[in-house]
Design goal:
This protein is α+β, with helices and mostly antiparallel strands. It has helices at 15-23, 47-58, 74-86, 110-113; strands at residues 2-10, 28-34, 37-44, 63-73. Chaperone for NapA, the catalytic subunit of the periplasmic nitrate reductase. It binds directly and specifically to the twin-arginine signal peptide of NapA, preventing premature interaction with the Tat translocase and premature export.
Length: 114
């Protein structure tokens, strides 16, 4: 589940028409309308669904821009954590509790050191 906050910027004087159009967009909840800016919450199953919502809103007449200001992706975060837990590419010395940190040599690029 992805939940995002966005600002929908509209042409001056077109707030009412855009608000009515937004009410018909499934997954979009309106929170505030002020000075040609409409604050909405977008809810979708994943990032692709979220992008589709943004593109749908961008196509509404008199919408100037849709700016994402917050995004939360619980399911995808857990999937990425699971991938990291299952990955076996962590160098052994990173998990060595007895390793003295002063013995670690850093060359400015961890990709070349690992």
């Amino acid at each position: 589940m992805n939940i995002s906050g966005a600002i929908v910027k509209v042409k001056p004087g077109s707030d009412t028409a855009v608000l009515n159009a937004l009410k018909g967009v499934e997954g979009c909840e309106i929170h505030l309308n002020q000075s040609s800016r409409i604050i909405v919450t977008l809810e979708a199953a994943d990032v692709s669904g979220e992008i589709a919502l943004v593109k749908t809103i961008e196509q509404i007449r008199d919408v100037v821009a849709v700016e994402m200001v917050y995004a939360y992706s619980e399911d995808e975060l857990e999937q990425e954590r699971d991938k990291l837990d299952l990955a076996d590419d962590t160098p052994q010395w990173l998990n060595n509790e007895s390793m003295d940190a002063r013995e670690i040599k850093y060359g400015g690029d961890l990709k070349k050191k690992i």
